[in-house]
C-alpha cells in the first residue's frame, strides 16, 4: 500500500502532470503546451498595451462635463456609445419626488418592514459580503436612525436590498419618472432606492451595465477611473478592487488616474459599463439608480469573471 508520508521515487509536487502519472519521469515539458502558454502571454501583453494606450490618451485631458437637459439622441451619440461619463441636469425636475421626498414625507408611508445593509463597519469586505449584511427592520425605526443624523457607514439602504424595498415602499415609485427617450418601464427593473446617512461609502468597483445615478436629496462625491486603468485598479476578485474604501489610491506610476465629481439634488451621473467608481455620502442622501434604458444594456450576460482573479 502507498504510504502518503513517503512519496514515490521521482515525485515532484511542482510537476502535477507527472504526479498524476500523465507524464512519465524524465519527460520534458509538452512543447504544444509551452507554445500555447507563449501565445496566451502575447495576447495578454497586447491587451495590456491597448489599455495603456487608451489610459495615456485619457490622462492628457479627459473631463467629466455637465450637460443640461440633453436630447436623448445627443446623449446616445456623445456619451452612451463612447462610454464617457457625464452629469445630466434638468431631466427630472418635473418628478413629484423632487419636491416631496424627505424624511417627513417618508414618515407618511406607514411602517412596513424594509431591508438595509447593516454592521458594515466591522467588515472591510462589506460590499462583496453584502448578502451577510442584510437586515430587516420597521421603516419608522430606519427613519429614526437617519433623523439622528450620524456620520457612519454602518447602515445603508442600497440596491442590494432592492427586491424587498421595491414592494415594501411601492408608493414611492408612483412619484418618479417617466424619463422618455432614456428609460423604459419593467425591462431590467425600474430603479433602485439608496437612502443613507452622511459618511456612507460604496467602495471601488465597476458595474456590469450602464447606469444612471440620481440624487434626490443631499450630495455625493463620486470618484471614477476609466476601464483603461484596470491594470492599476488591483482588481483581485470579480468587479472589486483592493483599493476598497480608499477614494484616493496611492500616487506614483502604479496608481490609476481618477476623476472626481459631486452630484446634488436633481442631478444624474451617467456611469458607463466598466468604469470604476467610489461613492461617498457627503450628507444624508436619498437617491436612485437606473439600468432600465431604452437601449440594449444586458452586458452581464457575457461576463465570465465572477471569481478570484489575482492572489
The CATH class label of the largest domain is Mainly Beta
Give the oligomeric state of the chains in this entry, treating copies of one chain as homo and distinct chains as hetero: single chain
Overall mean pLDDT: 91
Number of strands: 13
**Helix amount, in percent?**
10-25%
Entry keywords:
Jelly Rolls, 311 residues, globular, alpha+beta, 7 helices, 13 strands, single chain, 21% strand, 6-stranded mixed β-sheet, 2 domains, 4-stranded antiparallel β-sheet
Structure description:
There is one protein chain. The chain is of the alpha+beta class and 311 residues long. The chain has seven helices and 13 strands. Strand 1 (66-68), helix 3 (72-80) and strand 2 form a beta-alpha-beta unit. The two termini are 37 Å apart. The mean pLDDT is 91.
Amino acid at each position: 500500500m502507498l504510504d502518503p508520508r513517503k512519496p514515490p521515487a521521482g515525485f515532484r509536487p511542482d510537476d502535477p502532470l507527472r504526479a498524476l502519472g500523465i507524464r512519465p519521469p524524465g519527460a520534458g515539458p509538452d512543447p504544444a503546451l509551452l507554445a500555447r502558454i507563449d501565445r496566451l502571454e502575447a495576447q495578454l501583453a497586447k491587451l495590456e498595451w491597448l489599455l495603456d494606450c487608451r489610459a495615456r490618451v485619457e490622462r492628457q485631458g479627459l473631463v467629466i462635463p455637465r450637460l443640461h437637459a440633453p436630447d436623448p439622441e445627443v446623449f446616445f451619440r456623445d456619451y452612451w456609445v463612447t462610454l464617457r461619463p457625464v452629469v445630466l441636469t434638468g431631466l427630472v425636475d418635473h418628478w413629484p419626488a423632487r419636491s416631496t421626498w424627505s424624511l417627513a414625507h417618508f414618515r407618511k408611508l406607514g411602517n412596513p418592514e424594509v431591508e438595509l445593509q447593516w454592521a458594515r463597519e466591522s467588515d472591510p469586505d462589506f460590499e462583496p459580503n453584502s448578502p451577510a449584511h442584510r437586515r430587516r427592520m420597521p421603516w419608522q425605526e430606519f427613519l429614526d436612525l437617519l433623523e439622528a443624523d450620524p456620520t457612519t457607514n454602518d447602515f445603508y439602504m442600497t440596491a442590494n436590498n432592492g427586491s424587498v424595498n421595491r414592494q415594501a415602499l411601492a408608493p414611492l415609485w408612483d412619484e418618479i419618472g417617466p424619463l422618455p427617450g432614456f428609460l423604459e418601464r419593467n425591462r431590467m427593473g425600474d430603479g433602485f432606492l439608496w437612502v443613507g446617512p452622511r459618511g456612507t461609502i460604496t467602495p471601488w468597483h465597476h458595474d456590469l451595465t450602464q447606469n444612471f445615478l440620481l440624487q434626490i436629496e443631499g450630495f455625493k462625491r463620486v470618484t471614477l477611473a476609466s476601464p483603461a486603468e484596470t491594470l492599476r485598479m488591483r482588481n483581485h476578485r470579480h468587479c472589486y478592487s483592493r483599493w476598497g474604501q480608499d477614494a484616493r489610491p496611492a500616487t506614483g506610476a502604479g496608481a490609476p488616474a481618477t476623476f472626481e465629481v459631486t452630484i446634488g439634488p436633481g442631478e444624474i451621473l451617467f456611469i458607463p459599463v466598466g468604469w470604476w467608481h467610489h461613492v461617498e455620502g457627503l450628507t444624508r442622501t436619498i437617491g436612485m439608480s437606473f439600468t432600465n434604458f431604452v437601449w440594449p444594456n444586458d452586458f452581464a450576460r457575457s461576463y465570465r469573471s465572477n471569481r478570484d482573479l489575482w492572489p
